[in-house]
Design goal:
Elements lengths: L17 H19 L6 E4 L5 E4 L7 H19 L3 H5 L4 H11 L5 H28 L1 E3 H11 L3
Antiparallel strand pairs: 1-2, 1-3
Length: 155
């Protein structure tokens, strides 16, 4: 009938919602930090309730890198959303802020935020490609993330 939506063809791309993209960028930021520090993970996933996760078996990062990984998610989300990092850290990124504080053993995470911003500036094309793949598929294996990482990294 006229005006009814066309069913999606199997395998046809679907444009992800803005909320899915926000979460995908957040999780892609965490994944990029792990990839930059050569830490393997099982997969990255986002869920319909607006949350996401990077499944890591055992993290072997020092305090500085662990704090950076925690903050790369909120920093990537803020960059995508064109909002302040503080606005993300006071809302959806609050748990990441607390995890960064715990990793550093102190409340002041200014240095870790600088490190996270530098890491994401350097690897932004990879973060963007990872986020797009996560948003389209809902999850991404480590191997696929690594392939995307290598394909988008500049020497």
């Amino acid at each position: 009938s006229a005006g009814s939506p066309t069913p999606r063809r199997p395998g046809a791309p679907v444009r992800p919602s803005y909320e899915a993209l926000l979460t995908a960028y957040h999780e892609a930021g965490h994944a990029a930090a792990l990839l930059a520090h050569c830490v393997k993970f099982q997969h990255v996933a986002i869920f319909e309730n607006g949350t996401g996760t990077v499944s890591v078996n055992r993290e072997t990062l020092d305090r500085r890198r662990a704090a950076t990984r925690c903050l790369c998610g909120p920093v990537a989300e803020a960059r995508f959303a064109r909002c302040t990092v503080d606005s993300v850290l006071s809302g959806p990124g609050m748990a990441d802020l607390e995890a960064a504080r715990e990793a550093l053993g102190r409340r002041d995470v200014t240095d870790a935020l600088t490190w996270a911003k530098r890491l994401l500036d350097r690897h932004w094309p990879a973060v963007r490609a990872l986020a797009e793949a996560i948003a389209m598929d809902g999850q991404l294996s480590y191997q696929r993330a690594l392939s995307i990482w290598h394909a988008t990294e500049v020497p």
